[in-house]
Amino acid sequence: MRVLARFLAAATNVAxxxxxxxxxxxxxxxxxxxxxxxxxxxxxxxxxRTSSTPGRTRSINFFEVRWPGKPRPELIFADLPGYGYAKxxxxxxxxxxxxxxxxxxxxxxxxxxxxxxxxxxxxxxxDRQLLDFLSATGRDxxxxxxxxxxxxxxQLTNALRTLAQEYPAARLLPYSAKAGAGRDELWKQIRQAAxxxxxxxxxxxxxx
Length: 208
Ligand SMILES: Nc1nc2c(ncn2[C@@H]2O[C@H](COP(=O)(O)OP(=O)(O)OP(=O)(O)O)[C@@H](O)[C@H]2O)c(=O)[nH]1
Ligand SMILES: [Mg+2]
Hints:
The chain is α/β, with parallel strands linked by helices. The protein contains five helices and seven strands. The chain has a single domain (4-202), classed as Rossmann fold (3-Layer(aba) Sandwich).
């Protein structure tokens, strides 16, 4: 599937968030895990800036996504700053409560959190903290194991088994931005989450 996407806004505080409207998909994970690369592989262009140096993305970057032939955009992708690298963790941990945590807790249109972990590294404490935070906040999330192209089939099977043991409640999807593996399934999950949010918005819960 080809989509049209464009940069919408970069926010480093709550006041800069675009007005909530369309269903939003947030991409989260440790610095350098491949968040911006997953976004680029989904849309098929170099939309989000990527880098081999951790800490490239410092703001929440919003992109709107439109299907070809449709008059209006249907989705927002939010590329979030990474966490977990010692060098930048002090800054990020200062920033987290000021705009990232409010975004994850309060954004009314956040339909799905795509939580990325590197399939090449063992489960990390910082990932556990994020997933616990998302569960506690009641956010729907999908666990995506990135850079699967760097592993043999057997290594990938082992890595997925370890992740499934570590996070038994999570939906888990292997992915390679480089090879395109997992792209169709991730799109399916994203569209499903967006449709569910749009349906919920169309039929608000009855008053109680
Ligand atoms: N082999 C391989 N490398 C990847 C893949 N995805 C990302 N990379 C590489 O990993 C590095 C980091 O990618 P980014 O997409 O910038 O990571 P990020 O999570 O957005 O990083 P920050 O914005 O710094 O938090 C880059 O050098 C990418 O080329 C993948 O699927 N396979
Ligand atoms: Mg990035």
